[in-house]
TrEMBL record, chain A:
Family, per entry: Belongs to the binding-protein-dependent transport system permease family.
Domain of life: Bacteria
Keyword Transferase: no
Organism of provenance: Oceanobacillus polygoni
Stored InterPro entries: BP-dependent_transpt_permease (IPR050366), MetI-like (IPR000515), MetI-like_sf (IPR035906)
SUPFAM superfamilies, per the entry: MetI-like
Lineage summary: Bacteria, Bacillati, Bacillota, Bacilli, Bacillales
GO cellular component, one term: plasma membrane
This protein's UniProt keywords: Cell membrane, Membrane, Transmembrane, Transmembrane helix, Transport
Protein name in the entry: Peptide/nickel transport system permease protein
From TrEMBL, chain B:
Biological process terms in GO annotation: peptide transport; transmembrane transport
Recorded GO MF terms: ATP binding; ATP hydrolysis activity
Short name of one Pfam family: oligo_HPY
Listed InterPro entries: AAA+_ATPase, ABC_transp_ATP-bind, ABC_transporter-like_ATP-bd, ABC_transporter-like_CS, Oligopep_ABC_C, P-loop_NTPase
Name under which the protein is recorded: Peptide/nickel transport system ATP-binding protein
Origin: domain of life: Bacteria
Organism of this sequence: Oceanobacillus polygoni
Keyword line: ATP-binding, Nucleotide-binding, Transport
Family: Belongs to the ABC transporter superfamily.
UniProt-listed PANTHER family: ABC TRANSPORTER, ATP-BINDING PROTEIN, TRANSPORT ATP-BINDING PROTEIN
Signal peptide: none
Domain ABC transporter: 4-253
Automatic annotation (TrEMBL), chain C:
Entry GO terms, CC: plasma membrane
UniProt family annotation: Belongs to the binding-protein-dependent transport system permease family.
Organism: Oceanobacillus polygoni
The protein's name in its UniProt record: Peptide/nickel transport system permease protein
Annotated NCBIfam families: Opp4B
A GO biological-process term: transmembrane transport
ABC transmembrane type-1 domain boundaries: 95-306
Length: 302, 310, 320
């Protein structure tokens, strides 16, 4: 046997990063101009919205001022006022902040549930998997929106938290299914078998061996889910079953358009919020799609 | 007391089907296999694809559920994967066929090789690093590689990492399932020779699974030949290669290509003779279902699957 | 195939039972019960108690559940608290409206999606394809209610091309041609608004199917042999892509249900979705649970139907 180190051809470059990981995702975004612009836009929006709302007082903005109702945009109120004389621009800032925050919260809660269930289901397979997938099938066909609305009306201590929990409990299925199918593939790989022979417990294998290999797919799905969840939250708020008026979200502002008068003649109240949601969702989706391409080697651009 | 003893091992896989996805039958991947290993020796398991070699190896180490039969390691029953026997299993390790999928791509070499150490032994970070570096040195890789990821190594190097990981717990028995079949031919010999070298150094016992008789001949002291989940013949290397009894073994041995070009013609004719004999006497060696009979001893070490006569 | 269908039915039945249990539990959690709709609150409490006993409202929950299911199966969904009329009667006309709306939406969806998908797949990477892909990108991101609001605002209010509310102009006699045209006119914009969004997934599916097909050997062979390429092509695409798409309609139902709540609210269209929302606001919970039950069963049956049709047209699906 040759005793010299068979190591010559391993270049000691800067490649001490895990492969197909965060670095690839990042590279794809930088290569994709639209996604890059979207990302910058998102970061700026977040900074702006979270920064400014630090100085704005939510309670002040949502206080009714009957002497200033339905004003068109003017110097004092950049985007006019609503039927309670409240500053639309201020509500827009706070609404964006609230929408983003709740979107992130719901994405994290539902994502965690979905990932846990999918991982367990796919890793163990068999009866556990069968039962879990029947459950997913069932939740998928439920008229989710309506059930959420019913829940929202009958829950007694209604708050941001209970609202997030209600939303999350009907939004974990997609990611559970995805993670499950990936975990099913992953568990057949020899590194999982090897871990078993090396004495690692199933729990340890699932979370320290399999989960890291799903990280990029999780990032992608969570990003796309974030966009979807912001949409769902604003939809619920639009119908009047999301945030209370004292905690405006973007959907709350748009909901004023349920009044035909407002819809037709007072565009400044709802249109900016509608456009803002469109832009936010497009931007997040752009980033998500670029990330998705990055996880699929065939579609990668660079 | 044998070092490792496998007694009448059966591993069946259910075939699902029918209305409610119930079990409608079984694939008898391993069907009544018995053999024993001697410490410090290499035992070869040969057979064509699907004959149940891998399943046998995986059942011994606990990756498959054993349907019936027993696996005794140094006299202790390790058949079921219970926590009680888990500690015994650190004496048995495995080298996997595919050097690409058997190393977690997201882990550094340090974490890969230290995984078994973290499960069974309590070391400080420093000690652990030192041990991993020693292991790397042992398998002929540079100790500086510990912070690299698997994709930065070649196939042969990865297989060495796999070996280092298997050696971490100082096992006594290593099950190597086609350890070199995924490697370039030029690298195969390197890895095999290196495996023999550490065998002498560490007094290892190998269960070597392969369908390549050349490799088996090169490496093994004892050999078992499997066909459709059963043993057809077992013996020492000499017995199998110079005096095969079962018609199936004869055919396998005859199929080994001869390097000497002058012998080719002769070998070709010999191979044809064996093939003819195989066709003619197939029914004498296999039962109605085409399975091998149970083993009969024809010497101390040599056993052949023949029908019971008288 | 029969095996698949029967096995699929064995999944459907528990789904419906589970759905009904969930709705029953929700209904129990909702304030008010069947009596709330029937009597005047100023009546003597003892008399109320007597009434409760008579109506079986003091029975254990499983007896009540059984009664409720028995009623529902026979078409008795209870009384509306607000309108003091049987829920079934209240729902009937709304259901018909929503049915037409959904049907027209589906028709629009396929009429738009199929040509767009085929164009974008066959001539991929042309400017036309890029425009269509751009549309799917935006359509994928845009929430339905925002699209619908913009549609109403622009085409309804600003240009005045379409009515902005109701399901038919008042004062027309049912059965006449004007009546029919008015109905249709009221359906067009809402159905189109929803279709703009539901089209997206179908266009994307069709586009990638066609691009995949293009690379397949038999198309290349046919091309090499000089066979009329478009014939081979069309037949293949029809068999492998269009039939499955046609079968997807059942899966679309759950999307349409969610959509109908938004669309009917925005267009003030008297259908099930709006009825649901109004009833929630009015706390008319017997109506609420009935609507959820009907929509839920519709979605379950839709998925069942699509699964069965797909298993016939595309055997690959059956494996799952
Ligand atoms: N998990 C499983 N489920 C069902 N059948 C299996 C499973 N694993 C193996 N089998 C079947 O058991 C039989 C023996 O397989 P095994 O992998 O042990 O063969 P092998 O001798 O290692 O073949 P090869 O040389 O191809 O690796 C085969 O028929 C295989 O299809
Ligand atoms: Mg094998």
């Amino acid at each position: 046997m040759e005793t010299n180190k068979v190591n010559a051809d391993v270049q000691a470059s800067d490649q001490v990063r895990s492969p197909s990981g965060v670095s690839i995702l990042w590279r794809e975004i930088v290569r994709d101009k639209v996604a890059l612009v979207s990302l910058i836009l998102l970061v700026l929006t977040c900074l702006f919205v979270y920064g400014i709302s630090f100085f704005l007082k939510q309670s002040e903005i949502v206080t009714v001022d009957l002497f200033a109702i339905h004003q068109a945009p003017n110097e004092q109120f950049l985007l006019g006022t609503d039927y309670g004389g409240r500053d639309v621009f201020g509500q827009l800032i706070i609404g964006t902040r609230n929408s983003l925050s709740i979107g992130i919260l719901v994405t994290i809660i539902s994502g965690t549930v979905g990932i846990l269930l999918g991982l367990i289901s796919g890793y163990f397979g068999g009866h556990i998997d069968n039962a879990a997938m029947r459950l997913v099938d069932f939740f998928m066909v439920l008229p989710t929106l309506m059930i959420v609305i019913v829940f929202v009306t009958i829950v007694s201590d209604y708050s941001i938290w209970s609202f997030s929990l209600i939303m999350s409990s009907f939004l974990w299925m997609g990611i559970a299914r995805l993670i499950r199918s990936k975990a099913l593939q992953e568990r057949e790989l020899d590194y999982v078998q090897a871990s078993k022979t090396l004495g690692s417990s199933n729990f340890k294998i699932m979370f320290t061996q399999v989960l890291p290999n799903l990280s990029s797919i999780i990032i992608v799905t969570m990003t796309l889910n974030l966009a979807a969840n912001i949409g769902i939250e604003s939809g619920l708020s639009f119908l009047g079953f999301g945030f209370p008026e004292s905690t405006p979200s973007l959907g709350t502002l748009i909901s004023y358009a349920r009044n035909p008068q407002t819809l037709e003649f007072r565009w400044w109240i709802w249109l900016p919020a509608a456009i803002l949601i469109l832009i936010l969702m497009l931007a997040i989706n752009n980033v998500g799609q670029a990330l998705k391409r990055a996880t699929d080697a065939r579609q990668r651009r660079g | 007391m044998a070092f490792l003893e496998v007694k009448d091992l059966q591993v069946y896989f259910p075939i699902k089907g029918g209305f409610f996805n119930r079990t409608v039958g079984h694939i008898k991947a391993v069907d009544g296999v018995s053999f024993s290993l001697e410490q410090g020796k290499t035992y070869g398991l040969v057979g064509e694809s699907g004959s149940g070699k891998s399943t046998t190896g995986r059942a011994i180490i606990g990756l498959e559920n054993v349907t019936s039969g027993q696996v005794l390691f140094e006299g202790k029953d390790i058949t079921s994967m219970k926590s009680k026997t888990k500690d015994l299993r650190k004496d048995i390790q495995m080298i996997f066929q595919d050097p690409y999928s058997s190393l977690n791509p997201k882990k550094r070499v340090l974490d890969i090789i230290a995984e078994p150490l973290r499960n069974f032994e309590n070391h400080s970070k420093q000690e652990e690093k030192k041990q991993v570096q020693d292991l790397l040195e042992l398998v002929g890789l540079s100790p500086e590689s510990i912070f690299k990821y698997p994709h930065q190594f070649s196939g042969g190097q990865r297989q060495r990492i796999g070996v280092a990981r298997a050696l971490a717990l100082k096992p006594k028995l290593i099950i190597a399932d086609e350890p070199v079949s995924a490697l370039d031919v030029s690298v195969q010999a390197q890895v095999l020779n290196f495996m023999r070298e550490i065998q002498d150094q560490l007094n290892l016992t190998y269960l070597l699974i392969s369908h390549d008789l050349g490799i088996i001949k090169h490496m093994c002291d004892h050999i078992g030949i499997m066909y459709k989940g059963r043993y057809v013949e077992e013996g020492t290397k000499d017995e199998i290669f110079t005096n095969p009894h079962h018609i199936y073994s004869k055919r396998l041995v005859a199929a080994i290509p001869d390097i000497n070009p002058r012998m080719r013609e002769k070998q070709y004719r010999y191979r044809q003779e064996v093939q003819e004999e195989y066709n003619q006497s197939y029914n004498d060696y296999f039962d109605q279902e085409g399975l091998a009979y149970s083993l009969q001893s024809i010497s101390d070490t040599h056993k052949v699957a023949l029908p019971k006569r008288g | 195939m029969w095996k698949f269908i029967v096995r699929r039915l064995f999944v459907t039945f528990p789904q419906i039972v589970l759905l009904s249990i969930i709705i029953f539990i929700l209904a129990q959690m909702m304030p008010g019960d069947a009596l709330t709709g029937l009597i005047d609150p100023n009546i003597d409490p003892a008399a109320i108690e007597q009434q409760r006993e008579r109506l079986g409202l003091n029975n254990p929950w499983y007896v009540q559940y059984a009664d409720w299911v028995k009623g529902a199966v026979q078409g008795d969904l209870g009384q509306s608290f607000r309108y003091k009329m049987p829920v079934t009667e209240l729902i009937e006309q709304r259901m018909i409206n929503t049915f037409w709306l959904s049907l027209l939406t589906l028709i629009f969806t396929y009429v738009m999606a199929i040509p767009l998908g085929i164009i974008s797949g066959r001539w991929n990477d042309t400017w036309l394809d890029r425009a269509i892909t751009g549309y799917t990108y935006i359509g994928f991101a845009a929430p339905l209610f925002i699209t619908a609001l913009l549609m109403v605002w622009i085409f309804g209010f600003h240009f005045g091309w379409f009515p902005t509310g109701g399901s038919v102009a008042p004062g027309l006699t049912p059965g006449t041609f004007e009546y029919f045209m008015s109905k249709l006119q009221h359906l067009l914009l809402p159905a189109f608004s929803m279709a703009v969004i539901t089209t997206v997934s179908t266009v994307q599916y069709l586009r990638s199917e066609i691009i995949d097909t293009k690379q397949k050997d038999f198309i290349i062979t046919a091309r090499a042999k000089g066979a009329p390429e478009s014939r081979v092509y069309n037949r293949h695409i029809f068999r492998n892509s269009l039939l499955p798409i046609a079968a997807f309609f059942g899966y679309e139902i759950s999307g349409l249900i969610g959509g109908s709540v938004f669309i009917e609210t925005i267009f003030a269209f008297p259908g099930m979705g709006k009825l649901f929302l109004d009833s929630v606001l009015l706390r008319d919970f017997s109506v609420v649970s009935s609507v959820v039950l009907i929509f839920g069963i519709a979605a379950i049956l839709g998925a069942l139907l699509s699964d069965i049709i797909l298993s016939i047209v595309d055997p690959r699906i059956r494996i799952k």
